[in-house]
């Protein structure tokens, strides 16, 4: 795998993708609430008649579009640390929405973030690479 | 009904979708200011790349599945499961692309798995 130097603008695009993705999750969750509908069809019908769900989907789509652009400019592994921050942002947002985030859930999120950072930081330099690019 | 099957289905579709998108966009090439100034040509290039179209279709399917999940669970419970994608992408890189992998990275993957399991054990 050939490593490329990543431009600051690429990081900005990836960060914007993470932010609008997290915002989309919050809106989707706010829009669906905790459904009392029993069936799959009824649940989805209710969700799709809620404007906030559509706004959430738009935000999610925008996030995916930005991700597409970011991926075309940087290696997937270079985007990992930014992706990891999304888990913390969503957990904090859930808390602000009134969910009870237990200590164990925080521990789980912390382990996930630490794990993702280890995966991206621990990458071995390719043998033919001069290795001094980051 | 447990939301777990729907959560795992959503994650599987996201992972497959993202892998296809990455493969497809590599084919399309770098999207820079130059190409953004010619949006029609860019959209045509993207739309004529099957991997990108398939990846986007899987994204749409996963979004619908995800809405069902969110109507049944707390966001702080469901969202961390998306981290499984890092494990899947890593496995694909090692097994499929024969990328080299450091011990430190295996610890990272193990930590992600442990974190997701811990969240899974916190209930819905």
Summarize the model shown.
The complex is a heterodimer of chains A (134) and B (124). Chain A is an all-alpha fold and 134 residues long. Chain A has five helices and no strands.
Question: Overview of this structure, please?
Answer:
- With 134 residues, chain A is mostly helical.
- Helices cover 69% and strands 0% of the residues of chain A.
- In chain A, helix 1 runs antiparallel to helix 3 (51-73), helix 1 (8-32) runs parallel beside helix 4 and helix 4 packs antiparallel against helix 5 (103-121).
- Chain A is globular and about 50 Å long.
- Chain B has helices at residues 4-28, 33-36, 39-47, 50-72, 75-78, 84-95, 103-120.
- The mean pLDDT of chain B is 86.
- Chain B starts with a helix and ends with a helix.
- Chain B contains seven helices and no strands.
- Chain B has 124 residues and is mostly helical.
- Classes of the chains: A mainly alpha (134), B mainly alpha (124).
- Chains A and B meet through helix 1, helix 2, helix 3, helix 4 and helix 5 of A and helix 1, helix 4, helix 5, helix 6 and helix 7 of B.
Number of strands of chain B: 0
N-to-C span of chain B:
11 Å
Percent of residues in helices of chain B comes to: over 70%
* Order of H and E elements of chain A: HHHHH
Total number of beta strands of chain A: 0
* Biggest interface: A-B, 60 and 53 residues
Helix content bin of chain A: 55-70%
Taking all Cα atoms into account, the compactness measure Rg of chain A is 18 Å
Shape of chain B: globular
Q: Approximately what portion of the residues of chain A adopt beta-strand conformation?
A: under 5%
Distance between the termini of chain A: 15 Å
Secondary structure tally, helices of chain B: 7
| Arithmetic mean pLDDT of chain A | 83
Give the strand content of chain B.
Answer: under 5%
Q: Give the averaged pLDDT of chain B, no decimals.
A: 86
**Largest sheet of chain A at a glance?**
none
Helices and strands of chain B, in N-to-C order? HHHHHHH
**Class by helix and strand content of chain B?**
mainly alpha
What is the rounded Rg of chain B? Answer: 17 Å
């Amino acid at each position: 795998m050939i490593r490329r130097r990543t431009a600051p603008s690429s990081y900005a695009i990836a960060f914007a993708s993470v932010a609008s993705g997290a915002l989309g999750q919050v809106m989707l969750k706010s829009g669906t609430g905790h459904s009392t509908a029993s069936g799959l069809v009824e649940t989805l019908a209710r969700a799709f008649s809620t404007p906030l769900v559509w706004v959430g989907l738009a935000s999610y789509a925008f996030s995916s579009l930005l991700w597409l652009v970011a991926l075309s400019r940087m290696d997937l592994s270079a985007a990992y640390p930014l992706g990891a921050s999304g888990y913390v942002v969503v957990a904090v947002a859930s808390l602000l929405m009134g969910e009870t985030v237990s200590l164990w859930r925080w521990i789980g999120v912390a382990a996930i973030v630490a794990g993702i950072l280890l995966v991206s930081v621990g990458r071995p330099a390719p043998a033919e690479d001069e290795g001094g690019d980051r | 009904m447990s939301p777990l099957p729907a959560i795992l289905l959503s994650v599987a579709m996201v992972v497959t979708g993202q892998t296809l998108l990455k493969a497809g966009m590599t084919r399309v090439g770098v999207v820079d200011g130059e190409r953004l100034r010619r949006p029609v040509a860019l959209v045509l290039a993207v739309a004529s790349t099957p991997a990108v179209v398939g990846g986007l279709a899987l994204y749409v399917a996963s979004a619908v599945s995800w809405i069902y999940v969110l109507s049944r669970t707390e966001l702080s419970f469901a969202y961390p499961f998306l981290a499984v994608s890092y494990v899947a992408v890593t496995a694909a890189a090692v097994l499929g692309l024969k990328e080299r992998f450091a011990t430190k990275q295996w610890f990272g993957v193990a930590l992600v798995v442990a974190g997701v399991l811990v969240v899974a054990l916190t209930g819905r």
